[in-house]
Fold this sequence. Notes:
Layout: H1 4-10, H2 15-30, H3 37-44, H4 48-55, H5 58-84, H6 89-106, H7 109-119, H8 126-142, H9 154-172, H10 174-181, H11 185-206
Amino acid sequence: MPSRLERARKDPNSMKAKILAAARRIFGEFGYNDTTTRMIAKDVGIDISTLYYHWGEKQDLYEAVLVDVGDEIQQKLIDIEHHVGGQSLGRRLEVALDMMCDFLFSHPEVPNLILFGYFNKTRHGVTLDIKMSEHIANIAVAMGLAQDKKKISIQAQARILAVWNTVLNFISGENFFRPMLDTNHEDYVNVVKETLKFILVPAFTADKTG
């Protein structure tokens, strides 16, 4: 039998899908502990019993959100690899940063959910943690920091985490950082991309050892 998440994905107009979309936004804004199922139900315009019927308890819905986010990130990394395969490391980094920034700026709840998972650790973050380890391994191989996804050095993992956390913080912290730069959203996106490339491309292309 298909899971609740599979059924929501199969029919984006279904009540399950509408609840999932609202849950992503609200968990992304408030985190797990400060989000209630009543907040999500109110956002969708349903009563609480309807939410429970479609998704069960709060932790069940949160788990589905994390799986959904993790799968989206994994698919985006696959898309990036298809675009950059066979190109130079510098070009791979530039394209990867452009595509990942575009994805995350378009889905701001994703970096928020990841950062909430980092800093508000509960047992509900386990699935996302596992996914992130897989993502780091895939990125390390794609960037030439390792040859085998099962043999990623601590140094390579730390370098990937430095990139990942920089991207997440620039995007999740837009409302904090953008006023400092006195710019609009479009210009902020462009300057974030340019800054990431300015710092990261020379750093990775100068030393590809892991």
